[in-house]
């Protein structure tokens, strides 16, 4: 695997590509990249995080910290990874899953998936990919297997 990548996040709502130039790569192998980051814009609810992009599984799992450096929640993005030369572009497939410390699970942004499908900005294959990956992750969460991701990311929380 390439020693250093330029990382980008492709969003569809709003339609933008953001260069994650300030993210620090902590670890990488053929199936995973772990980064640490601070919020791109100041926020009151969160300050920083550690994210693991599990490219083969199509998910990004982030340990998100509040301003007091406490874990606010675990945020999971459903993604598709595109490699172009020295760049990795992480396409946000719109479906997000939040796991709180008390075990509560929240699925968000499904309305965006429907909105963009209705507008013709994404196709049925995009929706199928997003929902299949989200279902796989939810099954792991409901089977109490999400801890494997948390334990892996916790190794980088120094």
TrEMBL record:
Query: Which residue ranges does the record assign to the DUF402 domain?
Result: 11-145
**Which Pfam families does this entry report, sorted A to Z?**
DUF402
Family matches, as InterPro entries:
DUF402 (IPR007295), FomD-like_sf (IPR035930)
Q: Which Gene3D superfamilies match?
A: FomD-like (2.40.380.10)
Signal sequence span is none
Q: What name goes with this protein?
A: DUF402 domain-containing protein
- Which SUPFAM superfamilies does the protein's record reference? FomD-like
């Amino acid at each position: 695997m390439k020693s250093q990548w330029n990382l980008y996040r492709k969003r569809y709502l709003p339609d933008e590509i953001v260069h994650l130039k300030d993210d620090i790569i902590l670890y990488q192998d053929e199936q995973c990249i772990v980064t640490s980051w601070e919020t791109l814009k100041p926020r009151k609810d969160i300050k920083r995080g550690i994210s693991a992009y599990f490219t083969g599984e199509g998910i990004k799992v982030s340990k998100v910290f509040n301003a007091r450096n406490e874990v606010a929640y675990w945020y999971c993005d459903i993604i598709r990874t595109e490699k172009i030369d020295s760049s990795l572009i992480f396409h946000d497939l719109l479906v997000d899953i939040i796991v709180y410390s008390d075990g509560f699970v929240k699925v968000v942004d499904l309305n965006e998936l429907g909105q963009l499908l209705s507008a013709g900005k994404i196709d049925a294959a995009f929706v199928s990919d997003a929902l299949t990956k989200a279902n796989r992750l939810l099954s792991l969460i409901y089977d109490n297997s999400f801890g494997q991701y948390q334990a892996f990311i916790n190794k980088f929380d120094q």
